[in-house]
Amino acid sequence: MKVISWNSRGVQYPHFRREVKELLRTHKPDIICFMETKAEFGLNALNFMRRHGYDSQFQVPASGFAGGLWLFWKESAQLSVIFSTNQAIHCLVSFHECRLFLTFGYVRPQESYKEAFWGHLQDWKENHSGAWVLMGDLNDVASMDEVSP
Description:
β1, α1 and β2 (about 30-35) form a beta-alpha-beta unit. A four-stranded mixed β-sheet has the order 1-2-4-3, covered by helices on one side. By secondary structure, the chain is of the alpha/beta class. It is built from three helices and eight strands; from the N terminus they run βαβαβββββαβ. The chain is globular. The protein has helices at about 15-25, 45-50, 110-125, and strands at about 5, 30-35, 55-60, 70-75, 80-85, 90-95, 100-105, 130-135.
């Protein structure tokens, strides 16, 4: 199973559709999540993704021109959305004999959003057991070595 998490930095820019088409053609993901969409998806986005085999979708709407998550998956992915917040989508994915939790997160760079996100993940961890994958743009660094000068 192939999963892609991509920070689009806004879906309205002119090359977005072409880049998505190339990404889907090249990597053929079963599940794809676009982050920081800065928009709600409309009929054009839904039809575009359906033409590429993505029958199911879920979104966390943007707040003005900030945030936003679009999640698309193929029927074969056996994905169920369990819960969402303004910064994350929690899913249960089944494939073969394996089941795992999959969380897509986009954390806005302000400290208050980071604290809320990490607090939410701590609560999630305490209430769920089993395999869990977290992916996305967390806007956090482990050390100052990761920061560009």
